[in-house]
Write a structure and sequence with these properties.
213 residues, mainly alpha, Serine Threonine Protein Phosphatase 5, Tetratricopeptide repeat, two-stranded antiparallel ribbon, 10 helices, 2 strands, EMB1417-like, repeat
Length: 213
């Protein structure tokens, strides 16, 4: 499935937004929403969606995926994304992130894990932080602390610094797996000493009381 290096997300929007891309995106969304979960039917309909285009409607496709995500149409995201990748189109990190999320929400964690492993083996040091965070979020939601710690080990090896939400999930994974002695060092290493809160309508910086604050 992963065949070539993803384009950076901003490249989706380098080309001037073509006239009618929003309408075409909505057409795609409406089309896939009515289709059965059959590969031939889905791919056939999507092929017809692009049949009369001189260039692949990449902007419309990206907009359609965003629409489907907002509507929480996970199965349709999976269908469209796999079709896009079979065409070698829209191979961005955001596309992979959306696919991993959709697979998880559709209960297909094993498939998400398989795709993740392929991405990691193929790109290794090019994989962005948000994909590591996505997999940790997926495993955390499924109460799989050992899997969370496997992803964290990869992050440490590759020098990827987790964000604060991910750090807390890693800390909980250590605690849940009976490694409480490793929880505090991780939180102290990656959580910032200061945090921002809203007080009397203003954003105020305050010092954390401790690693779990």
């Amino acid at each position: 499935m992963v065949s070539k290096k993803p384009n950076k997300d901003h490249r989706l929007w380098i080309r001037k937004d073509s006239a009618g891309s929003g309408k075409k995106a909505l057409c795609l969304v409406n089309t896939v929403s009515k289709l059965p979960n059959e590969k031939e039917a889905v791919y056939g309909a999507l092929d017809r969606w692009t049949a009369f285009e001189s260039e692949f409607p990449i902007i419309a496709a990206a907009k359609a995926l965003e629409m489907l995500k907002k509507r929480r149409k996970w199965l349709q995201i999976i269908q469209v994304t796999k079709w896009l990748m079979s065409k070698g189109q829209v191979l961005t990190w955001t596309t992979y992130d959306t696919l991993l999320l959709a697979l998880s929400m559709d209960g297909r964690v094993d498939e998400a894990e398989s795709i993740w492993n392929t991405i990691l083996q193929t790109y290794t040091r090019s994989v962005p932080k948000k994909l590591f965070s996505r997999m940790i979020q997926i495993y955390n939601t499924r109460h799989l602390p050992d899997k969370v710690l496997e992803i964290y080990a990869d992050m440490e090896e590759l020098g990827v610094r987790p964000d604060e939400d991910t750090t807390r999930r890693i800390g909980r994974a250590f605690a849940t797996s009976g490694q409480e002695d490793k929880q505090k060092p991780v939180l102290e290493k990656y959580l910032k000493k200061w945090k921002y809160i809203h007080f009397n309508g203003e954003r105020v910086r305050v010092r954390r009381a401790g690693p779990l604050a």
